[in-house]
Design a protein that fits this description.
Elements (H helix, E strand, L loop, with lengths): L2 E5 L5 E7 L10 E9 L5 E6 L10 E2 L2 E3 L6 H13 L8 E9 L6 E9 L14 E7 L1 H6 L1 H7 L5 H16 L3 E5 L4 E9 L6 E7 L6 E5 H4 L2 E3 L5 E3 L1 E5 L1
Length: about 240
C-alpha cells in the first residue's frame, strides 16, 4: 500500500495522507516528481515503460512517480530513479527545472520536473521489472523529428512546457561560449544562448570579430549544421577555435 502526504494549495503539508488509488479530497494535492537528464553529448535519457503497466504501457517516457509519505521532492526523485533505472541522480549537478500544480478530479497534484547534467552509460543501468523495459540517450531535437516518439512523450503533462528548456540546455552543452570560425573564413565569438521569445527556439547570440563587431542571433540548430562545399565535400558551418 502506497501512502501519500497531502498538501494545501500553497504547497504546505496538511498532516493528512491519502492511499494511492483512492480519491484525493478537493483542495488537497500530492507530490509527483519527474527526472530529465542531459549527458556531455547533449543527449537526454528516455525510458520505455513496461508492456504490463496499467497506465501508459509500452511507450517512451522519463523516470518519475509519486512521492511517498515522508519524502520531499529530492528524496522522491532519487528513489524513483534508483528503482526504475538503477543509478543515483547526481544532486550536485541537478536542479528543479519547473514546477506545476495540476487540478484533477479526486487527484490534484504538484509536480517538480528535475534536470540533471550527468553521464551514465546505458549498459550500467538496471531496468526495474514490471516498470521499465528499455532506455536510450537521444538528442532532444531527434525526438521532435519522430512523430510517434513526440506523440508518446506528450502523454506527459509537462512535456511541451519543459521541452524548449531541455533543448536549450542541450544546445548550451554543444555550443559553448568561445571563438568559432565560419566555413567561409570569418571569426565570431559565441556569447551565449537564449530562447526566442515567440517561438521558444534556442538561439545563439554571437559577435562578429571583424568590422564594427556587430552582435547577431542565429537558430542554434543551424549553428552545428554541416554544409556542402562546391566540390561536394561536407564541413561544419561553424568550427570552434578556442574557449
Amino acid at each position: 500500500m502506497e501512502i501519500w502526504d497531502l498538501y494545501d494549495q500553497d504547497r504546505k503539508l496538511t498532516g493528512e495522507t491519502a492511499v494511492r488509488g483512492e480519491p484525493v479530497p478537493d483542495g488537497r494535492y500530492h507530490l509527483v516528481v519527474d527526472a530529465l537528464f542531459l549527458n556531455s553529448k547533449g543527449e537526454t535519457l528516455l525510458q520505455r515503460r513496461a508492456k504490463e503497466k496499467d497506465i501508459m504501457p509500452d511507450i517512451w517516457s522519463v523516470p518519475g512517480g509519486s512521492a511517498v509519505a515522508g519524502e520531499d521532492s529530492a528524496t522522491a526523485c532519487i528513489r524513483e530513479t534508483e528503482e526504475e533505472m538503477g543509478f543515483t541522480p547526481d544532486m550536485k549537478h541537478g536542479r528543479v527545472l519547473m514546477t506545476e500544480r495540476r487540478e484533477r478530479p479526486a487527484r490534484g497534484f504538484f509536480r517538480d520536473v528535475w534536470l540533471f547534467w550527468q553521464d551514465v552509460p546505458i549498459e550500467s543501468m538496471t531496468w526495474q521489472p514490471g516498470e521499465v523495459q528499455d532506455g536510450m540517450w537521444i538528442l532532444p531535437e531527434r525526438i521532435k523529428e519522430d512523430p510517434q516518439l513526440w506523440k508518446e512523450l506528450n502523454e506527459l503533462y509537462f512535456w511541451k512546457s519543459a521541452f524548449p528548456y531541455l533543448l536549450l540546455e542541450s544546445m548550451r552543452i554543444r555550443i559553448p561560449q568561445g571563438v568559432y570560425r565560419h566555413y567561409k573564413g570569418r571569426r565570431y565569438e559565441v556569447q551565449g544562448l537564449a530562447l526566442h521569445s515567440e517561438t521558444l527556439e534556442p538561439m545563439v547570440i554571437y559577435k562578429a570579430l571583424y568590422g564594427p563587431g556587430e552582435i547577431s542571433t542565429r537558430p542554434a540548430q543551424m549553428w552545428n549544421e554541416e554544409v556542402t562545399l562546391p566540390d561536394g565535400e561536407k564541413t561544419l558551418r561553424f568550427r570552434r577555435e578556442s574557449l
